[in-house]
Amino acid sequence: MSSTHYNVYGVERSYFTRKMTCTLNAMGLQYQLKKGRAHYMDAAKAGYPGGIPFVKTMNNEYAWDTTRVAEHLEYIHGNDKNFSSLLPTDSVSLFLNYLIEDMSDEWLYRCATGTRWYFPENTTFASHDLALDSSVGIYANGMGIPTWRMAANIADRVRTSCPPGGFNETTRDSFVSEVLWPWMELLSTHFKTYPFLFGNRPSLADVAIFGGAAAHFAQDPLCRRWCDEKGPYLVAHTHRLLENGAEFNERNLQERQWKSYDWDPTTNMSNSMMAILTDAGRLYLPWVSKACVDGEAVLEFKSGIKVNIKPTPFLMESRQIMLARYEKLKSPKLNLILKKAGILKYFEGFKIEKQLEDISIVPQPYHNRGFPTPNAVDEKTGRADNYSQMREMGKL
Q1: Calpha distance 271→237 (Å, rounded)
Q2: What is the rounded CA–CA span in Å between residue 251 and residue 254?
Q3: Are 20 and 66 in contact (CB under 8 A)?
Q4: Closest CA to 114 of 295, 309, 379
Q5: Residue 18 CA to chain centroid, in angstroms?
Q6: Which residue in 47, 48, 52, 41 sits closest to 19, CA to CA?
Q7: pLDDT tens digits, 55-73
Q8: Domain ranges of the chain
Q9: Looking at the chain, which terminus has fewer C-beta neighbours within 10 angstroms, N or C?
Q10: What's the rounded Cα separation, in Å, for the pair 136 and 122?
Q11: Assigned architecture for domain 6-85+359-370
Q12: What pTM value is reported for the model?
């Protein structure tokens, strides 16, 4: 039996859970957020390897990877009367949308997890909330793991995912001052003039930024103080997209009827957009373009701190997808913008080994996590998969 809404399985303090719920909300699609571990085994039977969230579709199929799910939703609901697309209609804005989304998901995410698990004030706050969400459904018959112990276990486990991505005790302050704070400032400058990245309606990149802010940067106590100081208009952007359906009163875009508002391609050449794109070429694109060719690359901060980082299979695939998107959407106008920002060289001339996927197919990708906890990686396949042993033993 089909459903009238989507189910999202995750937790509120999760970047990608909030990105997914915001995606559905901004598109005008009905959903429910399901906490706890219900349906995890059913999803695992379908190949789900772990890494929240995952989604149960209206046809009772399981899907994961927020970007792929969003594109699939565009295919399924694109012609619905009240559907609001998150993909800009002009090719230049569309590529920039994917580029900023990629930077948020694969680069700023490291600051999201790192600041949560390497700054005790944030750790205490977030681990307790995550434990409360994770405890849903396991207290049947009055039995369960004490919340304080669950919080400690979560913190210890998830912290191990940070060093492989480059975030550790040595690099933490450089990541904050040279990656996170500039990101907050640049976005705040743009959102002071424009309600969203590409005008008066949100894009997929906007909901990616929301995921990081709603779950981490505008939520965890220390990060929120930084954001209040350095990114007040990023906070305002976060509030515009809150999934509770609050009216967008600042610019009289009420009732969240975003589909009736136009994209604004002129934002692509604005000083604030150019600053965001230029920043992508400061640390992230030089590292990822080299690491995904050589198998590793040194990230060197202005502070003098250096760290060698190896890309995971998930990140290698994400990089290939970005190169394929560039090949599909490139134009003289796009090249002019990328060249002006100093980042065209990170897309031209690279070997493309992966084609863009068919968005009509329910997405169930083999890899689902950028930098997983080391104990989740299967030694035989190299895949981050929490359920591989259960499948091998025939328990799924």
Answers
A1: 19
A2: 8
A3: yes
A4: 309
A5: 9
A6: 52
A7: 999 999 999 999 999 999 9
A8: 6-85+359-370, 91-119+169-346
A9: N
A10: 22
A11: 3-Layer(aba) Sandwich (3.40)
A12: 0.93
